[in-house]
Amino acid sequence: MKTTAAILHSAASPLVVEDVDIAAIAAHEVLVEMAGVGICHTDLGVIAAPAEGQTPIVLGHEGSGIVREVGSAVTALAPGDHVVLTYSFCGRCDNCTRGIPQHCRDFMGMNMTGARLDGTTPLRKDGAPILGSWFGQSSWARHAVVTERNAIKVDNDLPLEILGPLGCGIQTGAGAVLNTLEPRPGSSIAIFAVGSVGLAALLAARVAGCETIIAVDIQQSRLEQARALGATHTVNSAERDAVEAIRDITGGTGAEYTVDCIGLPSVVRSALESLQTPGVCATVGFQGIPNEITIDHGQLLFGKSLIGVIEGDSIPSEFIPLMISLYREGRFPFDKMIQTFAFEEINKAIDAAHHGEVTKAVLTFDH
Fold it and tell me: Which residues form a coiled coil (predicted)?
């Protein structure tokens, strides 16, 4: 069949919305008609600097939609099911079978190349292959081919078009708090960089019952949004040293927990140094590989921990329903950070996301 997809043909160029062919799905695969899909900074990184051989490619990995076809081996999904798409994992390796699929041994091959693990792709244009399995979905398209494992069934009465970011960015921030840090009620936490990932971490800190929630950013508008969503304190680190400010807010001790949501070496260091002893910093920000940072070893020796987190340390089939349940209860209003654009406005949406004009851009589809 044919579908319409936004294709990146070369580095730093506008995406071209054009028709492509979808091959017949495999036994374990599912064809999803998209309702919405988020724009993540991981996508923007590929647009700016794709790896050799990584174009042409269809990006997008925060999709949501309706199942239209299932392969012969699929048992958990049926046509008509509403699903949120998330990262891909093999389900067979030692890490997958012990409940940490975010550390799948084939994570890089299944998510970061744009092809299936065997090197094939479900998309073609004029007979030539188009990479169409970015994060196992390539959902900047009207249809996506995914596996049963990375399509999470959700209730049909939810606003499907805005649920896609639950599968990556929002899952990453919220999971870093609820799954990795697990802060105790009444504790203090500082969140560095309050874009969509940081705001998701902030909402999760409220769910966890943190008493002191400090948002740190250089953009005043984001700090104001953080305050509206529940931050008890804000720090503009362009105007004041964040480590000093956090110590003042916490009575000189530092925060019990911190979350770095940008990955810049200076920010990771500040997040670590803002901790009290003992304390834990979770870093989820991504600035590409390699990304060397320098820290004071003494910060670790005296009881501070720095831990890296991928995809919020989440098991998507459990954590996405949890976030939705909290949303239904009014305790996790992630929708307040979303601005929608028509799919055909994808380049406008990318530009807005790139320049920080929106917190979380989501593309929607008119069927």
Answer: none
